[in-house]
Specification:
- It contains twelve helices and 20 strands.
- It is α/β, with parallel strands linked by helices.
- The strands form six sheets. The protein has a five-stranded parallel β-sheet with strand order 2-1-3-4-5, sandwiched between helices. Strands 16-17-18-20-19 form a five-stranded mixed barrel.
- α1 packs across α4.
- It binds iron/sulfur cluster.
- The site of iron/sulfur cluster (SF4) has 10 residues, from α5.
Length: 460
């Protein structure tokens, strides 16, 4: 028998360690690079020290993220010595080489081919046609039952606080059929929930004039609504992230009411004071936005709205800030994240008005978070007594924590249709029978804490 392809051969498998920093979009980039490297026969090492080469996928969005990225590069150099840098910070290579002239290569965001080429140069692949098989669903860094689905790169907006268009360029949408094929492969591989992401999800397809592509004998346009509908037909949960508040977002709400996509909207409103929104170069129609939110909830009463805001934006007055708090009272959003404004180098916003002192930013951040906490808690309590579908993320027991009867019943952590992984709350679930990760159970909600819910499985 010919044993040339057995693993006990002479050439050692090349091993690469990988650090992925930044947002879910960067995580998808990492998944793509890793998929490709694994397909070519590279192995992933758990530590830099145990690898032949380290790749660091950096984030350059805020100064604090850049500092974290530089620290990660330094650590990889110390522990391994052979380091390739990619990701958002790669768009400004001089910042990296000034501090670490010894890095082997620097590539920018989405430059998968360049990263892989750099890895080939530094650590040639061991060709083995028997081992170099690419699982059709790719290698995912997220748990198996949910996956991020990136539908476009770049952004055509020019929000004055953001340098992403500079780093990542203008909007480039993937053909709808490509996105749908990837979604189908992921679902075939066990994914139960698709998290649709991009810099600006609702602008999807505007760069290609909503061109249609062929999918299962029909044409699907590269349009936010059409793609959401087609994804919703695949049988998995579909969650929409980073939806810029364009008027046409209203069209997707009926799909949520019909249960085609999850009744969940992640819309970064960023502020409510018209003067601040104008300086941010964001849509500034806060009254209209309140009416739209009310209308969305009329059409889809289960809708969960998550948003993010920036406090301490240049020129933000106490009055602007109070207006934001009042707006939050009226909007009654379910989940809110808040950032203190950071003067990212190169952002237009820094030149528009006087900077807000750090102490004021800090004070406003605490006020906003405290203010919203009461609203979010009130919204969460409305779910007590209802039955919710819950996707199971983590299981414990049956010999884990005991139930009230002391019988050592299985417990788990999951999420309702209104909770995105990693950013929203969870449901602590008790169950009579063991649960499986990725399973969707019907849970009666019995109690609400500040962020999380507690309940018992009543059906599957
Ligand atoms: S929409 Fe998002 S990515 Fe685009 S410029 Fe604004 S903040 Fe940046």
């Amino acid at each position: 028998m010919d044993n040339r392809h057995s693993t006990g051969d002479t050439a050692r498998v090349p091993r690469v360690s990988f650090v992925s920093l930044g947002c879910p979009k960067a995580l998808v980039d990492s998944e793509r690079i890793i998929t490709r490297l694994r397909a070519e026969g590279y192995e992933l090492a758990r530590s830099h020290a145990g690898a032949d080469l380290a790749v660091v996928n950096t984030c350059g969005f805020l100064d604090s993220a850049q500092a974290e990225s530089l620290a990660a590069i330094g650590q990889a150099l110390n522990e391994n010595g052979k380091v390739i840098v990619t990701g958002c910070m790669g768009a400004e290579p001089e910042k990296i080489t000034a501090r670490y002239p010894g890095v082997l290569a620097i590539t920018g965001p989405q430059q998968y081919e360049s990263v892989v080429a750099a890895v080939h140069r530094a650590l040639p692949p061991r060709h083995d046609p028997f081992l170099d098989l690419l699982p059709p669903e790719g290698i995912k860094l997220t748990p198996r039952h949910y996956a991020y689905l990136k539908i476009s790169e770049g952004c055509n907006n020019r929000c004055s606080f953001c340098i992403i268009p500079k780093l990542r360029g203008d909007l480039v949408s993937r053909p709808a059929a490509d996105v749908l094929r990837e979604a189908e492969r992921l679902i075939a591989a066990g994914v139960k929930e698709l998290l649709v992401i991009s810099q600006d999800t609702s602008a999807y397809g505007s760069d290609v004039k909503y061109a249609a592509s062929a999918w299962k004998g029909r044409e699907v346009r590269a349009k936010f609504l059409d793609l959401a509908r087609a994804l919703g037909e695949l049988g998995a949960w579909v969650r929409l992230h980073y939806v810029y508040p364009y008027p046409h977002v209203d069209e997707v709400i009926p799909l949520m009411a019909e249960g085609k996509v999850l009744p969940y909207l992640d819309v970064p409103f960023q502020h409510a004071a018209p003067a601040v929104l104008r300086r941010m170069k964001r849509p500034a129609a806060q009254e209209k936005t309140l009416q739209r939110i009310a209308r969305w909830r009329e059409i889809c009463p289960d809708l969960t709205i998550r948003s993010t805001f920036i406090v301490g934006f240049p020129g933000e007055s106490e009055e602007d800030f109070r207006l934001l708090l009042d707006w939050l009272d009226a909007a009654e959003l379910d989940r809110v994240g808040c950032f203190r404004y950071e003067p990212v180098a190169g952002a237009l916003a820094n030149e528009l008005a006087t900077a807000v002192p750090n102490a004021v930013k800090e004070e406003r951040w605490h006020r906003l978070m405290g203010h919203q906490q009461a609203i979010s808690a009130r919204r969460l309590r409305r779910r007590v007594g209802t039955r919710q579908q819950v996707i199971i993320d983590e299981v414990h027991g049956p010999r884990g924590e005991s139930d009230a009867a002391g019988a050592g019943a299985p417990t788990a952590k999951g999420r309702t249709r209104g909770d995105a992984p990693e950013i929203d709350g969870v449901v602590h679930v008790a169950s009579r029978r063991p649960l499986r990760q990725g399973e969707i159970a019907t849970v009666r909600i019995e109690r609400a804490g500040e962020y999380d819910l507690h309940g018992t499985v009543v059906g599957f």
